[in-house]
Amino acid sequence: MPKLNKKSSVSKKRHVPYAKGFTPPTNRIQLAAIGNDQNLAEFSPGSDDDGFFSPVPQPSDIDDWLAQYCEEGQTYRQFYRECPWLSSRKWVYTKQKFNSKGNTILEKYPEGKIYLLPLGKFDSDHCVDFNHLQEFSQIYLGIDVVSMPGIKLDITNNVVSWIEDSLPDESSRGQRTSSRIKKQTLNARFNSKPKQYQIRVDEVLLKLKRKIPDDALCMIGLTMSDLYGDETDLFVAGMAAGKHRVAIFSFSRYDPTLTFDIGDWYGIKQDLNGIHGEERKRIILQRSCKLLVHEIGHLLGIDHCIYYDCCMNGSGHLREDFSQPIHLCPVDLHKLQTLVGFDIRERYQKLLVFYEKHEMCDEAEWVRKRLQYLDTSKGSL
Fold first, then answer.
1. How is residue 60 annotated by DSSP?
2. Which pTM was predicted?
3. Within a 10 A sphere around the Cβ of 187, how many other Cβ atoms?
4. How far apart are CA 339 and CA 363, in angstroms?
5. How many CA atoms lie within 13 A of 110 on its CB side?
6. 172 pLDDT band (50/70/90 cuts)?
7. Cα 282 to Cα 96, 143, 279, distances in angstroms
8. Which residue of 19, 109, 273, 332 shows the fewest CB atoms closer than 10 Å?
9. Within a 10 A sphere around the Cβ of 53, how many other Cβ atoms?
10. CA dist list (Å): 61 to 102, 150, 347
11. What is residue 380's predicted lDDT score, i.e. its pLDDT?
12. Distance, CA of 376 to chain centre
């Protein structure tokens, strides 16, 4: 998750060292991490000539993820052994029906859903369509994804207010009742000259914890407002409370028409002349979809991937985030398939339809080639 502070700088070196203690995995370690004991084509990385899964790139900037962090990685077997969603014991904070004998998350939590909650407006030209986010994440993850009624944000006189309708209590049925409006002030910072604001992320996360539905596997708040954590932050992409299964993330900086100052959080400029409107929407959608499934992956127990260039790689800054692929490598696809139990070919076919519909050409071509590879391979599921 990108997070920058004012002290960060940009390196002009072509390559920079890995973080102290990190060693890139060898091919043998990569294959062992997949855990493909049955030699199934779905979990095979293919040959180098196939070009499906490249190694994680060496850092080229001192702020790159693996230049800053010595990650240990999580193999398939580690995930299978440690994932709380696969445990025979119910997750401590969940309130829904639980079947200890189930093999997948859908069998163990048959009522379980993933909830998306919009915080603020998602209806302007620079916003991603919330229905597209719901559709994509459901296809990608293989779990029912539901959009919740949104929370309104009012920004007036350097004050950000959280506004929600309070529905009548069911116990008052048959009596004259009316919904009430709840309005609460959020911690935020403003800069009047460029008219920019940011919302303090931890307070929003605390409010979201109180709204998670009883049948939720997890709930993710999404916003187009910029977020920050500490006063030294330029921004944060979001924050998660893993044990409580709640997170909040911002798409504010995913608009390709924006450029950002490396010293001041409010240093944001826009150039609408360099990109066509439909291309702008496509890029915002691609970036937003990738962030969403990456972060839900964490809430489902999947750690950062160090084995291949993958959607579950970490990122140290926006440029690195934008360069990473949207697909899962064999290690993390094996984890997700074991967790959910979906048919991998069917998932790829549905993703292909989504990518083609939204003109995500690179992603569509990758999936198309992967399906062709599976069709010509033996030992498939």
1. S
2. 0.90
3. 13
4. 24
5. 7
6. very low
7. 37, 24, 5
8. 273
9. 23
10. 45, 38, 35
11. 52
12. 32
